[in-house]
Amino acid sequence: LPANVFRIETWYANVKTKTGRVTEYLANEKRYNGWQGGTLMKAVVYEQYGPPDVLHLKEVEKPTPKDNDILIKVYATPVNYGDITARNFANIPPHKFNMPFLLWLPALAFFGFRKPRINVLGSEFAGKVEAIGKSVKLFKEGDKVFGYLGQNMGANAEYLCMPENGLVAVK
What we know:
- The protein is α+β, with helices and mostly antiparallel strands and 171 residues long.
- Helices cover 26% and strands 25% of the residues.
- It has 4 helices and 7 strands.
- The chain has helices spanning 3-17, 22-32, 81-87, 101-111, and strands at 40-45, 56-61, 69-76, 124-132, 144-148, 159-163, 168-170.
- The strands form 2 sheets. A 5-stranded antiparallel β-sheet has the order 6-3-4-5-7. A two-stranded antiparallel sheet has the order 1-2.
């Protein structure tokens, strides 16, 4: 497995320890040991709001860079306050939201009223450029980069695509 997938799976196992499902997870880890990539990648996803138990490892479609995009293989991503808030957004009352009250309703609309519209959390990342679109001039394959995705999230995955002029820099 690529190093970043192991890190994500280890984090997932730590979350699952509280629910007693670690044995089931570790069996899944062995199943993936021979995985060589392709059109699918692994990501930690959630499909409903709630505690850490709503997170699970899933194979999803690997993104393809557009003309001005870079494809980044994620090596590391932190879990920060924004991830925790987004994961449990429907259960956060307006008075506990750490922004002005007038921003709570638009933020709830953006993230989803009853279930999350964004299924992969993670706004910060470090990794390596694996592929570039044909119009990209600022990056080349193999560049080590770090960046910020903002509220669009998606860094808790093996790969991510972002525009070359996004918040990304060479290390």
